Amino acid sequence: VQFVESGGGLVQPGGSLRLSCAVSGIIFSSETMYWYRQAPGKQHELVAIITAGESTNYADLVKGRFTISRDNAKNTVYLQMNSLKPEDTAVYYCNTAYWRLSVWGQGTQVTVSS
Question: What residue ranges of the chain have pLDDT lower than 50?
């Protein structure tokens, strides 16, 4: 299995970014996908979830600002992030419930700063 995250960068508070995560090695369309983030010195924090049926759920801290989506034809999960805040600064990762125990991608750095 491989997770390849991209789309991060430096953005000012209030700005937007769209993250992508290309996944290989699993039956992507059958999997619930998760976006996590990890700030320096902290553990991975769950940000958003999308099921195979495209039901979604969000951490309270990002609800109303972030949107998770998926494209099964491209084996890719997305995270649209709007109204970004400095506290959203972290490395963002995608994963599944099973593979998060052993395999992580390189992540994509999001820095929100003026």
Answer: none
